[in-house]
Amino acid sequence: MAIDEVDVALVVLTYNRRQQVLHTLGTLLENCHDVPIWVVDNGSRDGTARAIAEHYPGIRVVALPRNLGAAARNYGAQAACARYIAFCDDDTWWAPGALARGVAILEAQPGLAVLTARILVGPEEHLDPTSAVMADSPIPNTMHFVGSEVAGIMAGASIMRRDAFLAAGGYEPRFFIGGEERLLALDLMAAGWHLGYAPELVVHHFPSRLRDVTGRRRLLVRNALWCAWLRRSARDAWWETRHILHGVLHDAMLLSGLAAALPGLPWLLANRRPVPLSVEERLRLLEGRTA
């Protein structure tokens, strides 16, 4: 299936990485012929939006007034009126043919909402550890595609049904960034969708040096706790909380993630919607637990 025979668009998220996003866009234009590209500039202050307009006038830019974190992707998905949206970041890009193959799988499997690609890191093309975990998923592959069913998403290396993404609400703005995919994954599964990992789809990742590693780790802890409290059953939320805190209590920096999570309790309780038992059973499989 040729890529120009399907309705797919690329949404690229960037923030203050002008040179890196320009390189990524050049690579995407070479690898993904005739695919419309939308760049969501997350309030950059380094002239990113202007530089993209100068170098790539055919690429559409959604320039946001401030940094919204992962939720900025929602604006790109809303703007790109395609049946399928492929997401990547300013330091990731899809390999030639990957989008066409991803769309072909989704077309053949109407129960699949998302496919996450195999991520190869750096010039050495090391397999991303999360890709290895997804490949070894214990969830039964009821869709029978080449790959595995999973209970998660890699935001910067995924292709998904636009209508499913928007119906699920996209990325929650309060999570900002760091493990933001988990809540979306749970909401998609709660709505009856399946999630997949397809190793034949390849995304290359050249991690940027311009990142706040300490802040991201703190948000990963906060968001993991928030997600458990929002969507897990009382018993499973308690199990996951204990599991998270076991790795946090001896790390002062990560302990700040717990401190950041607690003020959100009123909002969490007001918006708590535990997932169905069928979803909990898949999560327990991943956690190596039984009912």
Tell me briefly what this model is.
The protein is an alpha/beta fold and 291 residues long. The chain has helices at residues 18-31, 48-55, 72-79, 98-108, 129-135, 162-167, 181-190, 213-231, 234-246, 252-261, 265-270, 277-287, and strands at 8-14, 37-41, 60-63, 84-89, 92-94, 112-121, 126-127, 148-150, 157-161, 194-205. The protein contains twelve helices and ten strands.
Describe this structure in words.
With 291 residues, this protein is an alpha/beta fold. Helices cover 42% and strands 20% of the residues. It has helices at residues 18-31, 48-55, 72-79, 98-108, 129-135, 162-167, 181-190, 213-231, 234-246, 252-261, 265-270, 277-287; strands spanning 8-14, 37-41, 60-63, 84-89, 92-94, 112-121, 126-127, 148-150, 157-161, 194-205. Strands 1, 2, 3, 4, 5, 6, 7, 8, 9 and 10 form a ten-stranded mixed β-sheet that branches. Strand 1, helix 1 (18-31) and strand 2 (37-41) form a beta-alpha-beta unit. The model is unreliable at 1-6 (pLDDT under 50).
> Which sheet architecture does the biggest sheet show?
10 strands, mixed
CATH superfamily assignment of the largest domain? Answer: Spore Coat Polysaccharide Biosynthesis Protein SpsA, Chain A
- Total number of helices: 12
Distance between the termini: 43 Å
Quaternary arrangement of the chains shown?
single chain
Briefly note the CATH topology name of the largest domain. Spore Coat Polysaccharide Biosynthesis Protein SpsA, Chain A
The tally of strands reads 10
Shape: globular
Uncertain runs with pLDDT below 50, 5 residues or more?
1-6
Mean residue pLDDT: 93
Q: Which architecture of the largest domain per CATH?
A: Alpha-Beta Complex
Question: What helical percentage do the residues reach?
Answer: 40-55%
CATH class of the largest domain: Alpha Beta
